[in-house]
Amino acid sequence: TPFWIKVKCRRRIRGAVCGFTAGAGGLGALILGLRSGDGWVHVGRVGSGFTDRDRREVADILMQLPGPCPFSPAPRYREKVTWVKPELDCEVEFGEWTPEGKLRAPSFKGLRPSE
Predict the structure, then answer these.
(1) What is the rounded radius of gyration, in angstroms, for the C-alpha atoms of the chain?
(2) Quick one: which of 62, 83, 65, 71 has its CA closest to 19?
(3) Which residues are CB-neighbours of 72 under 8 A, at least 6 positions away?
(4) What's this model's pTM, rounded to 2 decimal places?
(5) pLDDT tens digit string along 60-86?
(6) Cα angle at 68 between 21 and 38, to 5 degrees?
(7) In this predicted model, what pLDDT tens digit does every residue of 101-110 receive, in sequence order?
(8) CA atoms within 13 A on the CB side of 96
């Protein structure tokens, strides 16, 4: 009816790319973190919102930044994770935060150098 309209509120955040999983086109998902004091907090992964071109280009960039896992303890994934230096920020759009402090339904919007 014209009296009821569903509107989804989406939020945006920039998180550091701390790793990635392999997938079609070279990239499956990005593992994201936020700086917390002297360390990093794992906030989840983003695997949607990429074009095929994005997947190839982002995978090529990240292959040049190998590094150790910045999280302690390291998050566990079924897929093999390639850890990278957290030198790039990933902007994502997401629905909300889960009770565990992870992003719910994140979607990739772009990369930029960390500030």
Answers:
(1) 15
(2) 83
(3) 39
(4) 0.90
(5) 999 999 999 999 999 999 899 999 999
(6) 115
(7) 999 999 999 9
(8) 5
